[in-house]
Amino acid sequence: MKSASLFLSTLLLASAFGTAHAAPAELKVEVHGIKQSKGEIMVALFDKKEKWLRDAIARKSVDARLGAVEVVFTDLPEGEYAISVLHDANSNGAMDTNAIGIPTEAYGFSNDASGSFGPASYADAKFKVEGANKSISIRVN
């Protein structure tokens, strides 16, 4: 009886320790639908609705390549995230728009979310990173 109790206590402790100290995850983001190899693909990672499209917790940029590119975010704690992507074709560091404010460069959001008369909402773009590594795909239009 004493050994069964010790075994159960050890199992509960191991379970609690494993939950409290989950290893940081790696998030691979494939951006596809890239129609030209000029400029950069800029990927921004957000972890809160209140900071959506204003204050990213991490950013990555890679040279644009016809078709698809991949960026990787490392050491992410488990949680909820959302991503925005911009194909900055002229490498000016900003989204270009026409005279009435419609984007003239390709962009996209996680879950391939889209907005009506504006960007996608955090609620539509959010996803969870749980446990080990995760891969997502985002199309730019």
Low-confidence stretches: 6-20
For the sheet with most strands, the description reads: 5 strands, antiparallel
Number of helices: 2
Radius of gyration: 20 Å
Q: Oligomeric status of the shown chains?
A: single chain
Mean pLDDT: 89
- Termini gap: 64 Å
State the shape: globular
Structural class: alpha+beta
Q: What's the number of extended β-strand segments?
A: 8
Portion of residues within helices = 10-25%
How much strand? 35-45%
N to C succession of SSEs: HEEEEEEHEE
Protein name: DUF2141 domain-containing protein
Keywords: Signal
Organism: Undibacterium cyanobacteriorum
Signal peptide: 1-22
Walk me through this protein's architecture.
The chain is an alpha+beta fold and 141 residues long. Helices cover 16% and strands 39% of the residues. It has 2 helices and 8 strands, in the order αββββββαββ. Strands 2, 3, 5, 6 and 7 form a 5-stranded antiparallel sheet that branches. A 3-stranded mixed sheet has the order 4-1-8, with no helix packed on it. The radius of gyration is 20 Å and the shape is globular. This is DUF2141 domain-containing protein. Residues 1-22 form the signal peptide. Keywords: Signal. InterPro entries: DUF2141.
